[in-house]
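[job 4471] stage=fold_predict status=RUNNING
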Amino acid sequence: MDFSLVRKTLFAFVMVPMALSAQYTDVINSNRPGRAVSAYAVGKNVVQAEVGLFYEQQDDADLNFDSNIFGTDIALRYGLFFEQLELVYEGSFITQSIDFSGLTADQTLTDFTRNRIGAKYLIFDPFKNPEANKPNLYSWRANNVFQWKNLIPAVSLYGGATFTLGDNPFYLGDPNISYRGAVATQSRLSPRFVLISNIAYDRIGTDFPEWSYAVSVTHSFRNPKWSVFVENQGIKSDRRSDLLLRTGLAHLFNENFQADFHLGANFKDSPSRLFAVAGVSYRLDFHKDVLIPIDQQSGGKNGKIKRNASKKKGKKQKRKKKDEIDF
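[job 4471] inference complete, writing structure tokens
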């Protein structure tokens, strides 16, 4: 068995950054399943698509209607300029059939419920310096139990714009462009558990700005190609408020392809929601490692390098030559 491949698959599959590279991993780093997004980018020159199909059933006891929703989610991610920077497009397009129990005519609504483009940048990475995070070669337990330092998260910032095209029935009266800001954090609780949290302020510039959060915990099994997750999401605005719970699993077919499935529901009856989602993630990997000469490396790149190492080496060589001349 190739234990190095298994180890790489395990860490990357649960979106743990590898040493020497703050972003890029040998195995696809997907934000699916769920809505919480990783603090890490896909890596420079990596193009990635994440697509899902979903069905949702809603019942509203107050307004006396039920509805069926079919839709698709898509995210297109591209690592640009730096390992820490990612451009991303996110879209959700749905068709909702509403039955008002014979009181009024049924309705069918079709449009985007999410249509935005933005950029995410990693501002802090606790794994940047591998010297401070190297494994304990003498203790398996020390490498596999919870440590308080594991709570220190990677942090990224997101800024983007949401586009409402035409008379969108889901966002009546909203301007064509509104704005979104978000913070994403990610902590490796242990080699098998990863905690991701997001907080976002969305639809800025409309009459109904929206706060939301998402907290997700992912667990990888002993077979590193399989993982499960549990996620809680909250949404608060004058237009809508909701609290949702999701759970599901993902399977890694190869280093560039992942499939996933999850179920979810909310905790209220105005309306109540029950949904199922299936999706895939695929990447085109054009990433190339950049090798930095050792005398040009700073602390945190390929280990901790003393800033004046090359100068000291030069001084030693000069002293050696002088000693030879004196002799």
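[job 4471] summary: Residues 57 and 68 are 5 Å apart (CA to CA).
[job 4471] exit 0
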